[in-house]
C-alpha cells in the first residue's frame, strides 16, 4: 500500500494546524455560506414548479429564442415527471451559490492581475494548481475543515470553478486595444474611469465567457461533491453508479444535462445583446399570419 | 409561383402552432404534476431528501443536542436499507427528526469522530475497516453489531465447483488462465482490496493480478461476464444485492485471509448517549437476522428501498417494539 510521504505529511500537519488555530474563522465562513445557500434554496423552492418553469421559459423567450423557451418548458416538465424536482432545485441552489462566490472573488482578482503584473505572476501558478489538481483531491480537506454537507461542497466547487473567470477577465482586459486606452487617456480619464468606461465594456464578451465557464464547471463539480454529502442530483447519479442501476443514473444524468443547457444558454445571453430583440421576433411571428 | 411562396410559410405556421401546442401541453402537465407533488408533501410518510434549509441549525450546529439527528450513509444497498429503517424507527419512536447525509465511507468515520455526523451504521469490524477504526476508535461510541457479513472472492455459480472450490485452486496455471489471470477488485485502499492483495501473497498466486477499480466497476464487470457466460473472479461481500440478482458463490478461504465472519457495527459521536439515552438503548438492541436482511435487500432491489422498508416495519411490530423499548412480548 502506498503511503503519504514527507510532502503529504506536511500537508496533513498544515490541516491539523488550521483545525486547531483557525477553527473560529471556519465557523464564521461555514455559517455565512450556509445562510447564503439556505436563502438561495428557499428562494428557488418558493414558486410551484409550473410557475418556476414559466419564469425560466419567459426569460428564455426574452433573451434567447422561442425554441429555447420550449426546450426549457419540456425539459423542466421531464425533470418533474421523473420525480427529480427537489434534487434539481438543491443542485441549482448549490451551483448558483458557488458561482456567485467564485465571481465575487474571481472578478476582482482578474481585474487586479490585468493591471498589476506582479499579482498576475503570483496568481498564475495558483490557478494552474487549482485547475489541474484532480477534482476529488479537494473533497478531503474541504470535509476536514467544514464537515459534510452543502458548505464543503460549495467550497470545493468554488476552488474548482474559479480559475476560468480570473483568467478570462485578465485576458479580456489585456486585449483591449492600446489606441482605445490612449484615446481614454487623451480625454482625461482617471484610472477608475478608464477601467469602468473603456476597458470593461470592451472586455465584456471575454469576461462573460469566463462567467459562463465558471457556472458550467460549478455544475460538473457539484455532482462530484455528492460524495461529501452535497446532495441534490449528484446523489441520484452516485446511487445509480454504485448500485449499477443504469436507469436511475441515466435519469439523474439527463436532469443534469437539462439544467446545464438552461444555465448555459441563459448565462450566455443575459449579459450580451440578444441576437434579435423580442419585438423583432414577435413581428416575425405575426407576419406569418398576415395575408400578402 | 404561388406554391413556392406559400409552402415554406405554411410549414413555418405549422411549426409555430405545434410549438405553442407543445408548450401548452407541457405547462398543463406541469401544473398537474405540481398539484400531485403538493399532495405527496402533505402526506405524513414522505421521507424524500430534505434540502439544505433543514440543515441550517438555528442553535449552532456543533452542539448536536438541537436540530435533526445527522445519520451518515453510503449508497450501498444494505446501508440504504439499514439507514432508512433507523430513520423511520427513530422518528416514530423518539419523535426526533433524522436527516440522512450521503457521504463516502472514510468521510463518515472522520465526521463521526469530529461530531459533525451523529451516527453511522456501516462500520465493518474487526478486519475490513481496521484502518479507519484504529484511527477513530478513541473518539467514537460503538453501539455493537447489527448483522453479519462476509468478504471474499466470488465466482458465478456456473464456474465448475469440482474444478474450482477454494482460492488455493487458482494456483493451477491453466485454471488461472481461464480467468485471464485477473481478479477484479474494488476501490484501492478499501479493506477488501487490501485483504485481496494479502490473499495473492498468502496463497502464492504469483500469476494472478488484482485490478483495483471501484465497487461500481466491479459489479459492472461481473454483470458483463455473466451475460457472456465468461469465467470471472470478483472481490465482493455479503450482504449485497448482487447475490439476489445473480447465482454466485464464495471461493473457500482456508487460511482465513478474509477473516471469516465480519460484523457491521453502528457508531455514534461522543456524547450521543448523554444527549439521547433512549436512542443509545435502541442502537444497542438494533439487530436484524441475516436471512430477513437478505429478503429485505431482494425486495429493495426489485421494488424500491422505501417500499421494502415500509413492508418490513409493518410485518415485524414485535421486533420494532423490542428495539425501541427493550420489552419482549
**Radius of gyration of chain A, CA atoms, in whole angstroms:** 22 Å
Termini separation of chain B comes to: 92 Å
Contiguous helical run count of chain B: 13
Percentage of residues in DSSP E strands of chain A: under 5%
Q: Name the poorly predicted regions of chain A.
A: none
Describe this structure in words.
The complex is a heterodimer of chains A (292) and B (329). Helices cover 83% and strands 0% of the residues of chain A. Chain A contains 14 helices and no strands. Chain A is flat and about 80 Å long. In chain B, strands 1, 2, 3, 4, 7, 8 and 9 form a 7-stranded mixed sheet that branches. Chain B has a two-stranded parallel sheet with strand order 5-6. Chain B is an alpha/beta fold and 329 residues long. In chain B, helix 2 packs across helix 12 (305-315) and helix 10 packs across helix 13. The radius of gyration of chain B is 26 Å and the shape is globular. The longest helix of chain B has 41 residues, at 2-42. Chain B starts with a helix and ends with a helix. Chains A and B meet through helix 2, helix 3, helix 4, helix 5 and helix 7 of A and helix 1, helix 3 and helix 7 of B.
Keywords:
heterodimer, A: 292 residues, mainly alpha, 83% helix, flat, B: 329 residues, alpha/beta, seven-stranded mixed beta sheet, two-stranded parallel sheet, 9 strands, disordered N terminus
Amino acid at each position: 500500500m502506498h503511503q503519504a510521504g514527507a510532502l503529504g505529511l506536511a500537508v496533513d500537519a498544515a490541516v491539523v494546524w488550521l483545525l486547531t488555530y483557525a477553527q473560529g474563522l471556519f465557523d464564521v465562513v461555514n455559517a455565512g455560506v450556509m445562510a447564503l445557500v439556505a436563502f438561495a434554496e428557499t428562494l428557488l423552492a418558493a414558486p410551484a414548479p409550473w410557475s418556476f418553469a414559466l419564469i425560466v421559459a419567459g426569460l428564455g423567450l426574452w433573451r434567447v429564442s422561442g425554441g429555447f423557451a420550449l426546450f426549457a418548458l419540456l425539459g423542466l416538465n421531464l425533470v418533474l415527471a421523473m420525480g427529480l424536482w427537489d434534487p434539481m432545485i438543491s443542485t441549482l441552489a448549490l451551483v448558483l451559490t458557488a458561482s456567485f462566490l467564485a465571481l465575487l472573488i474571481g472578478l476582482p482578482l482578474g481585474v487586479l492581475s490585468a493591471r498589476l503584473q506582479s499579482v498576475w505572476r503570483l496568481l498564475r501558478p495558483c490557478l494552474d494548481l487549482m485547475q489541474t489538481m484532480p477534482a476529488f483531491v479537494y473533497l478531503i480537506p474541504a470535509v476536514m475543515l467544514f464537515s459534510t454537507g452543502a458548505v464543503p461542497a460549495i467550497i470545493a466547487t468554488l476552488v474548482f470553478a474559479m480559475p476560468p473567470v480570473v483568467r478570462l477577465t485578465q485576458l479580456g482586459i489585456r486585449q483591449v486595444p492600446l489606441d482605445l486606452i490612449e484615446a481614454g487617456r487623451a480625454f482625461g480619464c482617471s484610472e477608475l474611469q478608464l477601467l469602468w468606461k473603456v476597458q470593461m465594456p470592451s472586455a465584456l464578451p471575454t469576461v462573460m465567457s469566463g462567467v459562463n465557464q465558471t457556472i458550467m464547471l460549478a455544475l460538473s463539480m457539484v455532482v462530484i461533491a455528492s460524495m461529501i454529502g452535497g446532495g441534490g442530483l449528484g446523489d441520484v447519479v452516485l446511487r445509480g453508479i454504485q448500485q449499477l442501476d443504469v436507469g436511475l443514473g441515466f435519469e439523474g444524468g439527463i436532469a443534469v444535462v437539462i439544467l446545464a443547457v438552461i444555465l448555459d444558454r441563459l448565462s450566455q445571453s443575459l449579459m450580451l445583446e440578444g441576437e434579435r430583440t423580442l419585438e423583432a421576433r414577435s413581428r416575425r411571428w405575426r407576419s406569418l399570419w398576415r395575408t400578402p | 409561383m404561388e406554391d413556392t411562396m406559400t409552402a415554406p410559410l405554411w410549414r413555418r405556421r405549422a411549426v409555430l402552432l405545434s410549438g405553442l401546442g407543445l408548450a401548452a401541453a407541457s405547462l398543463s402537465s406541469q401544473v398537474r404534476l405540481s398539484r400531485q407533488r403538493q399532495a405527496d408533501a402533505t402526506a405524513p410518510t414522505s421521507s424524500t431528501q430534505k434540502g439544505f434549509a433543514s440543515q441550517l441549525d438555528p442553535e449552532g450546529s456543533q452542539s448536536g443536542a438541537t436540530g435533526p439527528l445527522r445519520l451518515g450513509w453510503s449508497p450501498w444497498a444494505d446501508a440504504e436499507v439499514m439507514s432508512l429503517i433507523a430513520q423511520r424507527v427513530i422518528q416514530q419512536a423518539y419523535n426526533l427528526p433524522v436527516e440522512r447525509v450521503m457521504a463516502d465511507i472514510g468521510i463518515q468515520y472522520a465526521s463521526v469522530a469530529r461530531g459533525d455526523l451523529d451516527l453511522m451504521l456501516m462500520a465493518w469490524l474487526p478486519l475490513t475497516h481496521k484502518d479507519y477504526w484504529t484511527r477513530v476508535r478513541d473518539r467514537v461510541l460503538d453501539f455493537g453489531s447489527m448483522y453479519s457479513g462476509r468478504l471474499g472472492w466470488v465466482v458465478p455459480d456456473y464456474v465448475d465447483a469440482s474444478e474450482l472450490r477454494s482460492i488455493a485452486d487458482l494456483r493451477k496455471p491453466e485454471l488461472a488462465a481461464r480467468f485471464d489471470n485477473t481478479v477484479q477488485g474494488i476501490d484501492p485502499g478499501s479493506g477488501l482490496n487490501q485483504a485481496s492483495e494479502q490473499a495473492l501473497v498468502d496463497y502464492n498466486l504469483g500469476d494472478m493480478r488484482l485490478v483495483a477499480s471501484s465497487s461500481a466497476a466491479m459489479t459492472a464487470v461481473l454483470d458483463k461476464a455473466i451475460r457472456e457466460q465468461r469465467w470471472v473472479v470478483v472481490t465482493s461481500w455479503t450482504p449485497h444485492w448482487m447475490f439476489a440478482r445473480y447465482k454466485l458463490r464464495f471461493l473457500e478461504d482456508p487460511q482465513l485471509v478474509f477473516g471469516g465472519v465480519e460484523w457491521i457495527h453502528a457508531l455514534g459521536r461522543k456524547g450521543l448517549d448523554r444527549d439521547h439515552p433512549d436512542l443509545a438503548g435502541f442502537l444497542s438492541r438494533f439487530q436484524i437476522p441475516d436471512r430477513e436482511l437478505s429478503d429485505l435487500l431482494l425486495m429493495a432491489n426489485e421494488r424500491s428501498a422505501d417500499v421494502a422498508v415500509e413492508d418490513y416495519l409493518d410485518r415485524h411490530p414485535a421486533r420494532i417494539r423490542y428495539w425501541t423499548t427493550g420489552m419482549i412480548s
